[in-house]
Design brief:
This protein folds into 2 domains: 77 residues; 233 residues, no CATH class. It contains 12 helices and no strands. Helix 2 packs antiparallel against helix 3 and helix 9 packs antiparallel against helix 10. It is mostly helical. The longest helix has 34 residues.
Length: 320
Amino acid sequence: MKEEQFIKTNSNTWRELESLSTVINKKGIKSLPSNEVKKFLSIFRQCSHHLAYARTHYPKSNTENYLNSLISSCHSHVYAVRKVSPGEFFKYVGYEFPRLLKEQKWFVLSSFGVFAFGLLLSLILVAANPDNANMFLPEAMVEGVKSGTAGGGGGQWNYPLMSSYIMFNNISVSLRAFVFGITLGLGTIYVLFFNGALLGALTALMYMYGNPKHYWSLILPHGVIELTAIFISGAAGLTIAKSMFLPGELTRKHSLINASKKAVSLVLGVILMLVIAGVIEGFFTPLNISEEIKLIFAAITAVLLSLYFAVPYLIKRKHN
């Protein structure tokens, strides 16, 4: 097609995109009704194809320069990153996150159930035969606990080694429990079960060869929040799996999209929880204070976390 014919055929479309872009520049994209937004996106895609065609057939021409300028001016409207105001952030933290947990409570409880089953099973297996710990824990860690060099009988806890291992494991577990929801939930269930088994095996070894009080004083101050974050991540993964198995009245595609939005909202809260847990582990857990104080601190975090999650129930009761 000759350039003149190309311009004549498509110039009305380009002018329409220009007009919509001008309105958006002046009043913002929210000023457009939904059908106009869809129209803008459709025309933008058409003009992007026109630009690609012009670059191929009319390189360095005025037509290419014009289309390049037009698409560039519209690009920021299409791919703009939505800014989150401080008010929205505090609303999410203060109410939306616990409200979403209330809405997804059965998924959270299911996630906890899978984790607890793995923990109890490994606890029983290792208590029956300590050699079974090798099924769940690295051999070096098992030998370290037995010999007392990683929190064993002498109560000597290799804090950098053990704490770093546990924190890194919990963070990676949280992320994998969420992402593996796309495997119809099988990956999520495996991650929750195996990591419950890991904690159960380590706990059994500590009661057999180590100092349980010392162990819990180093695990629980940050572990209460970290473990809760794992259960919530597992719930996010199970939410995605459920949308694929049981889409309801929606198509599987739209069911998955809706579930993914909820799951991502849950994971945002999980990230905040892991940050708080990391701060506790970095600044509080290593302090040279009594084990009793650390355990009391862990109990306080559990109470505060319970009160925080109860916010939607308390607000609902107040309005009633």
